Amino acid sequence: MKSKSLVLSLILTLIIAMISSTGALAHPGRTDSNGGHYCRTNCAKWGLKDGEYHYHNGGSSSSPSKEKQEPEKDSTSSAASLLLLPKKQASGTLQVYYLDVGQGDSTLIRTPKNQYILIDAGNNNQGKNVVKYLNHLGVNTLDAVVATHPDADHIGGLDDVIKSINVKSVYAPKVSHTTDTYKDFLLAIKNKGLTIKQAKKDVTIPLNGGITAKFLAPVNGYGGDLNEWSAVLKVQYKNNSFLFAGDAEIKSETDMLKNKALLKADVLKVGHHGSSTSSSKKFIDAVKPKYAIISVGKNSYGHPNAGILSRLKNVGANVMRTDQKGTITAISNGSTITFTTTKGAK
């Protein structure tokens, strides 16, 4: 009996030690009904600001020391363990949220009249994160979803979004793909009783409150070159303009340059994550952005290209990247644009 009691005592001691150790390392804070919470304790240790709202995917955090020891994985293979949420802005302004979805694209536009457009939703593993972003920002209905082109790092998460959020309309270029990702996207649309409206030059998304949203591309057909098919959208609010270039490359840019005057914009969502196959000198000179946003994560492609970064800076653009700044929010009152981000530059 004594030996049995001794064994039980040792087991109990080990359990208590494990709990104490885990409690010391785990990031504290009770989650709310959305599965997130505000950081209150040792926030800097976790790369957070005091009071910053965020999620822990999977329900818990790893210790900082363990995270440093493990090699970083390509963001296309796994979603980030910590989701930093942008601050919800007051209504009455145009807000553009360049969501941090790793190596991919996803942008939410909120108009002064509280209409919402979502452009892309990152890779397959980012769909649930995009839904969390939308829930946090109070999005109950998306007036329009734009699938720029069938690449997985743009449309991969859209099926999750379409399943989870009420959607009024879906826009996409008239090009298809044979991947399961694209089939999932089509099935989600079908199951919601929606049809796809063609995104092409001169098509407009109907919006209220003096906002115009017009597609500048695709201008032509581009065969099997999916990037060139990218839906390129320009949004204008009074004196401020935003251009969203998808993954459009040189052929599409050259076609858009035939209407050069339309390209001028204050803010450019840089084409193809800053790849050298996009953002030609003529195109950047025509857009001449004051601000250039690059949606990018850890990758093996060399994005963003150093030459493209120099080209943007040469036209006076203030370049911001989601891999450095997290989610980037642009707020426009129609004459001036201000920015907030979820994390500082590394």
Describe this structure as you would to a colleague.
The structure is a single chain. The protein is built from ten helices and 19 strands. It is an alpha/beta fold. The protein has an eight-stranded mixed beta sheet, with no helix packed on it. Strands 12-13-14-15-16-17 form a six-stranded mixed beta sheet. The protein is globular, with a radius of gyration of 22 Å.
Reported for the largest beta sheet, the result is: 8 strands, mixed
Tell me the radius of gyration: 22 Å
* Number of β-strand runs: 19
Percent of residues in helices: 25-40%
Roughly what fraction of the amino acids lie in strands? 15-25%
Distance between the termini: 60 Å
Strand order in the sheet with the most strands: 11-10-8-6-5-4-18-19
Total helical segments: 10
Mean pLDDT: 84
Quaternary: single chain
Structural class by secondary-structure content: alpha/beta
Which segments are poorly predicted (pLDDT under 50) over 5 or more consecutive residues? 10-26, 57-80
Question: Shape from CA axes?
Answer: globular
H/E element order: HEEHEEEEHEEHHEEHEEEEHEHEHEHEE
List the defining traits of the structure above.
346 residues; alpha/beta; six-stranded mixed beta sheet
